[in-house]
Amino acid sequence: MDRSDVKACKDLKDLILSNIRALYGPIFPTTHTFDIILHEHPPEFAALAIAYTDDASPNKGSFRKWKQVARGMSRGGNLHALGALWSEVQVLMREWIPGKLVEGWIDGEKRGERGRGREKRERGWGEDMG
Questions:
Q1: Do 27 and 113 meet the contact criterion of CB atoms below 8 Å apart?
Q2: Which pTM does this prediction carry?
Q3: Fewest CB within a 10 Å sphere: which of 12, 35, 57, 123?
């Protein structure tokens, strides 16, 4: 991967993380951070958005446990996998934030409570989400 691809990956990762925090912050209120990890499993590349979920005392804030919240896959390399993840996150943003988002609530319901099971099943990654 050349330097321009690395910069493009970093920029795309930053864009994705902003949206992931808006989408999943209310679902994982004790989460201390979200991250994007890249994984190569030939012939595919994966970009995974994860939430670190370990808030148990005395290890609060550790990185021992995490859950996948979104995934992008590609055979074209890490940058393409991040592009696929960005596309998935944009679909979620259109579905979950219909212009009525106010501090993690949509139409009087906390995000993730309404229709969450249906969306998880349709996407095929619900078991990773919690």
A1: no
A2: 0.70
A3: 57
